[in-house]
Description:
By secondary structure, the chain is an alpha/beta fold. The chain contains eleven helices and 13 strands. Helix content is about 30%, strand content about 25%. The chain has an eight-stranded mixed β-sheet with strand order 7-8-9-4-10-11-13-12, sandwiched between helices. Strands 1-6-5-2-3 form a five-stranded antiparallel β-sheet, covered by helices on one side. α4 packs across α5, α4 packs parallel to α7 (about 180-190) and α5 (about 145-160) crosses α7.
Amino acid sequence: MQPIHTRLDDNLTNDPETLIEVRDVKTHFFTDEGVVRAVDGLNLSLKRGQTLCVVGESGCGKSVAARSILRIVPKPGEIISGEIIFRQRNGQSIDLSKLNPKGHEIRKIRGDEISMIFQEPMSSLSPVHTIGSQIMETILLHMPVSKQEARKRAISTLDLVGMPQARKQLDAYSFELSGGMRQRAMIAIALACEPELLIADEPTTALDVTTQSNILDLIRDLQQNNGMSVLFITHDLGVVAEIADYVTIMYLGRDVESGEVDSIFHEPKHPYTRALLNSIPRFDIGNKKNLYSIKGTVPHPFYRPTGCPFHPRCDDFIDEQCDRIDPQRKKNNQGHSVRCLL
């Protein structure tokens, strides 16, 4: 049965070039110890053919946000409010948050119109199925082709992502491949059906610098050739500067600042964004200065601070204001938004 009110009028997405828009989404985990507000009012927007980087420390909710879009949040987590508006290939807009996570409609979208490169390929790839069978499974699920045609497409997709000896590696298992080759196999699975949106969840974290550069170049080239949008999750601001069009900074499950990459790097508004930028190693600081670090640690998920979530670690903390008032999201005419009393 199709859920009620999943199809939306096009006027809900103001810009026809907007591919996906996340509006005040909250994804909570209801555990015996208490409620973990992993995503707690997230807003982001991504246009066709552009790259949005989502940045934040470990535990800020980046991966849960990505899984919320695809409706693959593990139990006991669930989306409790908000909208995830996605414009499909047929031009219709749909609210993904209202779909049944195991229903036919979201299954048609997963792997076809929206694909995801997961954080750790060794745990995401099946060790008992060949790379080829895992790519072909996606193709056969979403395309009206024969097994022979699916195999040819799988080989061409592996060639596309730069897999050496693609025809031979098609019959290899994940444990027979290097880290870089496994990551290319993951990308091949994600790109097999030419998705409109590619979600990359820290795809270069466990790779050496050379392989990381190759993977980033590969994603960028494929994006330019296919015109797909990329939602790139990372904590590496060097990667952000290289590939992003827009940036969303996350802290404790919500967006604290969003804007074009140049405005985020050159005119950061939120103290957390400035702290992240100040933490980047620089060649010009000299050998007698200590590298800047953000004081404190990310709060325990069961003991979130009152007021602004960042105030216990903030250098610009205002007593009796920041610890009491939860700042609302404000947006200027250039599309730069921030949550801060300052």
